[in-house]
Write a structure and sequence with these properties.
Layout lengths: L3 H6 L1 E7 L2 E10 L4 H9 L8 E12 L1 H16 L3 E5 L3 H10 L1 H4 L4
Helix pairs in contact: 2-3
Length: 109
């Protein structure tokens, strides 16, 4: 396995429908892929008054760097005046979000 395989396995699909933005993440969110999440959130532009729904159904693993990236990026959206919610969160990630308190920061749909 080369170092690039994990990066190429991560994907972000964004669908904008008026004030609602659906961002579907697939793959692992870790030290290698977190910068791609940063880029995807940056590409959203002005998020004031918009609702970002992050679909995590395709995410199987999140390490500490990925967790930090999720919190900081979603926090940036909220600080900029947007609303954030997480959906299709696996039981494994729900447990991680409960342990770390992320479920209190961002509602789970």
């Amino acid at each position: 396995m080369t170092g690039d395989e994990g990066i190429s396995a991560f994907a972000v699909d964004t669908n904008v429908d008026g004030a609602r933005i659906l961002m579907s993440l697939r793959g692992e969110i870790d030290a290698y892929t977190a910068p791609r999440l940063d880029e995807a959130v940056d590409a959203l532009g002005d998020v004031a008054g918009r609702h970002l729904v992050v679909d995590l159904s395709g995410v199987g693993f999140v390490d500490s760097t990925g967790l930090s990236s999720l919190v900081s990026n979603l926090g940036r959206v909220r600080t900029a005046g947007g609303v954030v919610s997480l959906r299709e969160v696996s039981r494994q990630l729900v447990k991680l979000f409960e342990i770390t308190g992320i479920n209190r920061l961002f509602p789970l749909e």
